[in-house]
Amino acid sequence: MGNSEQIFAIAIGLKDPWHIEKIIFSKEQSQLDIYLKFTRGSTFMMDDQQEYTAYDTSDRTWQHLDFFQHKCYLHAKVPKVKQADGKIKTYPVPWARKGSGFTLLFEAFSMLLIENEMPVNKVAKVVKVYPNRLWNVFNYWISKAHKQDIIEDLDKIGFDETSVRKGHDYITTMVDLNTRRVLFATEGKGADCIKKALHTLMKKQSI
């Protein structure tokens, strides 16, 4: 492995059995393509807590963070294994979540921009993707965080209806008045939104 490949392997966070097979840079397309490969004969721990060798692979591509002004993509032949129960499953690679076309670093950077109050449409322009794809990333991580959120010592709540644009598009939020923490948010306003918020709160309190 050359010096440049070693540097990129460190930047991506590759660990055995994964390594960089080749790097192709296209000046005309302003694009960097990094091809990853696993060592032949390697075993992979699956969700049944057993290790298997790959019997087949499937080609996958993920958009990574830009390399300076150049678009960057990771490509890999992802191992497919046949488990002891006969089920055929694809190994979940460590640099991307299942079903995503982006690397975890790409998603983390995008979420950081959104968390710093940059509108999703503007973030989409910065990372050069369609807004709908970024909304999918946003919804996944917000849903995951919401499910893991624990509400404790709640004794006082309040509701706020905020206009996103002047005279249009309201958002209703439910807030813990003691900690000033947003517990729930939904599009719209009125009694239906409050019912939805209370229903969600009761579901979380009963978990």
Concise account of the structure shown:
The chain has helices spanning about 5-10, 105-115, 120-125, 130-150, 190-205; strands spanning about 20-25, 30-40, 45, 50-55, 55-65, 70-80, 90, 155-165, 170-175, 180-185. With about 210 residues, it is of the alpha+beta class.
Question: What tags apply to this protein structure?
Answer:
single chain; 207 residues; alpha+beta; 2 domains; 5-stranded mixed sheet; 3-stranded antiparallel sheet; 5 helices; 10 strands; 30% helix; globular
Topology, element by element:
Elements: H1 3-12, E1 18-26, E2 31-38, E3 43-45, E4 51-53, E5 56-67, E6 70-82, E7 88-90, H2 104-115, H3 120-127, H4 131-148, E8 157-165, E9 168-176, E10 181-187, H5 191-205
Parallel strand pairs: 2-6
Antiparallel strand pairs: 1-2, 3-4, 5-6, 6-7, 8-9, 9-10
Helix pairs in contact: 2-3, 2-4
Task: Describe the model.
30% of the residues lie in helices and 37% in strands. It is of the alpha+beta class and 207 residues long. It has 2 domains: 3-140, no CATH class; 148-205, no CATH class. The strands form 3 sheets. Strands 1, 2, 5, 6 and 7 form a 5-stranded mixed sheet that branches. It has a 3-stranded antiparallel sheet with strand order 8-9-10, with helices on one face. Strand 6 and strand 7 form a beta hairpin. Helix 2 (104-115) packs antiparallel against helix 3.
